[in-house]
Amino acid sequence: MRTFVSALAAVLGVLLAAVAVPAIWLDRNIVGEDGFVSLAAPMGQDAEFRQQLATAAVGTIDTSAVPGFLEGLVQPVLENAATTLTGLPGYPAAWDETLRKSHHLSFAPTAGDAGADGQASSLTLDVAPLVALGVEEISRTSGIPLDAPQETLITVGQPDHREWVERLVTYAPLGYLLAIGSGVAFLLALVAARRRWTVVAAAGIGALLMAGAWKLATDAGTALALATDTGNDVANLFRDGFVPAAAANFGAWTLATAVTGGVLLVLALVGGAASRRRPRATR
Fold this sequence. Notes:
The protein has a two-stranded antiparallel sheet. The protein is an all-alpha fold. Helix content is about 70%, strand content about 5%. The radius of gyration is 26 Å and the shape is elongated. Keywords: Membrane, Transmembrane, Transmembrane helix.
């Protein structure tokens, strides 16, 4: 009976861990604002993405308030701003603020109300900080005061992705509870086991199997995401940069799990062999 309880608890621990770790990663790196910004921030250094984003941001600047006789002066300044925006000292801070505003729009509880058409996709970029930077530069260069918008949205994904985002926000934080449950299950398995090194070996094998399953799932998910056309050039560039970055980040967690599994398995083999060789005390 003890062996059965131990085996059942060990299997339960592996299953709970298999779900808990990805959920915790999602909560920390996608649902969590700081993690999302840290993951996406390096994309702002990609030359092609920076230029396309700057062009899109400057292209949204409203110049309707400029008198007609000054339009010929403003247009060259606009074109030049699209080229020079990414080189301005304030660009890194504006990109960081863009990511934070975008994350709030996409993952905050009220994100469903975002967007001009009342629909929010799985991710909505709000490039208003970049537009404000461009407006400031244009006003400084041309001497014509322009007003920066409070919100400038670029949709990434499709409106029906909203449901997936809501599920992610709801269920990702449960990963911590699942992790606790996994730890309790393994502790029960150790307590009930007749041979505790067997439980350690099972945990190691389980970790190796989890890492393999996560790798296959990550590769399949990455390929599917990259093959999905967002219908927007800037959004496609964001997808092409963000999805591989997310896969690489989770890949580090996968590798750590595989290494941990290998270490546990080796410890179990060595410890089990040593315990078998240890002479039993005679009465």
